[in-house]
Amino acid sequence: MYQKYVIFWEQLGKFVIFFIFPKRKFILTSKIESSSLSTTKKKTLKRSCETRWIDLYHAVHDFLELYEFVEEALEDISM
């Protein structure tokens, strides 16, 4: 069971690292800002500290809130 959590945190970290680069980050933020239906105040994904549980919570919460925009950004990048 513990191994599933470790894999999840690793994958979440890879998403965050992927969108660190300026061009990719710009695509993600433009998707977030261009959405008229979005009520989110979040603009980027956050890194999490492995030992601070509240950071992990906020990182997952932000990722789930921005998931739709992450998916759209990945589709644009892949084209």
Description:
The mean pLDDT is 84. This protein has helices at residues 2-18, 22-34, 53-78. It has three helices and no strands. It is mainly alpha-helical.
Protein topology:
Elements: H1 2-18, H2 22-34, H3 53-78
Helix pairs in contact: 2-3
Could you tell me the strand content as a percent range?
A: under 5%
Mean pLDDT, to the nearest integer, reads 84
The gyration radius over C-alpha positions equals: 13 Å
User: Looking at the structure, what is the overall shape?
Assistant: globular
Q: Number of DSSP helices?
A: 3
Ends: how far apart? 36 Å
User: How would a textbook summarize the main sheet?
Assistant: none
Q: Helical content, roughly?
A: over 70%
Give a short overview.
By secondary structure, this protein is an all-alpha fold. The chain has three helices and no strands.
Q: Which properties best describe this structure?
A:
79 residues, 71% helix, 0% strand, globular
